[in-house]
Amino acid sequence: MKKRFWLVLLIVVVGLTLYFEPFRGSPPEPDVSVNGREIDVTSGSSCWNSLLNSKCIDLSDTTPLDMTAEQTPTVVKPSEKIDVAFTNGSAPTRIKAEQWQKGDTKKTIQLKNEQLTAPNKKGLYIYHVYAWWKQGDGNVAFSIRVK
Question: pLDDT of the chain along its 147 residues, tens only?
């Protein structure tokens, strides 16, 4: 009887620990994909406060163009839907997305139902996704080539 109590208590504690993620050292990254194919992301600046650790990584002098310079762009079709889902951890309270092109040209893009739509014009496009949680913030960048 005593063993069962301690086992149940241990399961509850481990479950709560995993649910509240008090030991996470950085913000969750989104899972980005198109038609089930994963798109690589590169992390940018972030700040994160957890139960045992608080830290900031400052890459403020790095643009999304720099962040994706070594990525191989994922080829997508015009107007194809790209999924941007935060499945590894708690959902952010706010998300902002931008589309970048050469020459530091950027515009805000709407994420609808955790998706964005690729442009219908051929070319290289860089996306920059910011996310905020009560524990902190972070951002990632990824590149696509519309063909």
Answer: 677 767 676 676 555 555 555 566 789 999 999 999 999 999 999 999 987 788 899 987 789 999 999 999 999 999 999 999 999 888 999 999 999 987 778 999 999 999 999 999 999 999 999 999 999 999 999 999 999
- Confirm whether 69 is domain-assigned: yes
At residue 124, φ and ψ (nearest 5 deg) are -95, 130
The rounded distance, in Å, linking the Cα atoms of 15 and 19 is: 6
Which whole-number Å values give the CA distances from 78 to 99, 113, 124, 144, in the listed order?
A: 15, 19, 12, 11
CATH of the domain at 140: 2.60.40
Structural domain containing residue 66 = 25-146
Does a structural domain hold residue 82? yes
pTM over 0.85: no
How many secondary structure helices (H) and strands (E) does the chain include? Answer: 2, 11
- Domain count of the fold of the chain: 1
